Amino acid sequence: MPDATVGGRPSAFAHPDLASFCRLDELGLVVTGQRLEPDRAVLACRVVDADASDRWCRRCGCEGVPRDTVTRQLAHEPFGWRPTTLVLSIRRYRCDECGHVWRQDTSRAAEPRAKLSRRGLRWALEAIVVQHLTVARVAEALGVGWSTANDAVLAEGKRVLIDDPNRFDGVVVVGVDERPGRPCDLLMTANRRSLLCAAVGRLNNEFRGSAGSDACTLHTASMIMEAKNANF
Fold first, then answer.
1. What is the dihedral of CA 154, 155, 160, 165, to 10 degrees?
2. 126 partner at 20 to 30 Å CA-CA among 1, 162, 206, 225?
3. What is the pLDDT of residue 130?
């Protein structure tokens, strides 16, 4: 039987790599350890030291020296519906010339002060928009609070959709659904197969002036992804 790990065939197997399996290589991280708890999986990670500029002071430009290491926790996309938590070990540097202290750049992994990794945030958006999960279910799968999940999805959806001047390119359907018993209207914009955005709020004035106005409150949004089995 031929060795399935040899060659560049699409069906060939690669060596096991937990970082690739969890898509941490996209975030500039490598896994250094794991701990399986009853309710979650915890992955210890370090930042790939590929950017030499991390060692240079952002104030005076002198080379810094390692000072210590701090940790940062991020909720990552779940695997097997078990929350996955990343514990990042982040090196801190100190400049001997000016005394400035800074950390390794982790912007590939997450936004500053964010509690969700970029992959975790993308998973949450897809789960809400494409799979129609509730915010409560998404928060449970990520292992975070409802407010944390909701605030993260709202902010990211606004950034990639509402603030995108080209979000209506190719739109062929704009529908407004007034739901009885709910103090809001639902605005949905779509092209033939992709859900572009959905917003909940008082849309009457905004919709008459400009569909999808920035004044609308974003309820849930997609990153212009293919909506499976969409029927518009």
1. 100
2. 206
3. 80
